[in-house]
Amino acid sequence: MPEPMQTKEPFRFHTRLHLSELTGLKASNLKQLLEIIKTAPGSSIYHHTHRFLQQHMYLSPEPPNDFAYWVTNVLGEKELGERLASIDTIEFLTIRDLRNKIADIIQGYLAANPSAGLRFAGEGEQFYFVKSVSFVIPTNYVAHNLREFADALNMITMDSIYFHIFEARLRLEKKTNDFSLWVETSLGDKELARSISRLDPYTRTLDNLRKTLIGLVTRHIKD
Asked: Which of 34, 46, 115, 134 is most exposed, with the fewest beta carbons within 10 Å of its own?
């Protein structure tokens, strides 16, 4: 078997420790929710659109975001909840763009339904804004070629998969995930990089995502 091509730069796998921290911000109605969404830390917008993914790594995909859940189940605004739940997060490359989309949907709904802004949540049912705090930590796994990369994907934690797929693309604004970026820039393999970047991680469990990534890389090595 021929030796696999060595990359220009090795891929160094990282993982992250995740903490949830209260911001002190809370909303009792749609108008308050909208105003806080416009100014809340980006880490809070990220938390409320990715919390389910971070906490339930093995459960079925298509999780709801916290905003959709609250307006539906607390304020009873089912139509708005459906609009918020239908946001395709994979389309957005920055938290800023995702924030603007959420705000635009709520603002448009309020303009068409002014009375919706007069409905208040009961005591204890307000929307409490939480922010996601991550501490990035290097692991012992380093890949110098695709074979080592596939082996490492089998060994790293789900938190490492999550960091390189979700946080790198959206929170660090790299426009794509770390794996695709490394394959294209360090190995020069645009075909494999495109195959990885085309995966929609929001429609998969992290366990399935790991297996799919390993399958893509392994087949590419054999080809």
From this structure: 115
Distance, in Å, from the CA atom of 134 to the CA atom of 46, rounded to the nearest integer, reads 11
Cβ-based neighbours of 71, under 8 Å, separated by 6 or more: 30, 33, 77, 80, 81, 84
- Three-class DSSP category at 23: strand
> What is the predicted pLDDT for the residue at 171?
80
pLDDT at position 172 is 77
Q: Please tell me the distance from the alpha carbon of residue 118 to that of residue 139, in angstroms, as a whole number.
A: 50
Rounded Cα distance between 164 and 17, Å, is 13
- The pTM of the full predicted model, rounded to 2 decimals, is 0.84
Specify the range with the lowest mean pLDDT, choosing from 38-47, 49-58, 73-82.
Answer: 49-58
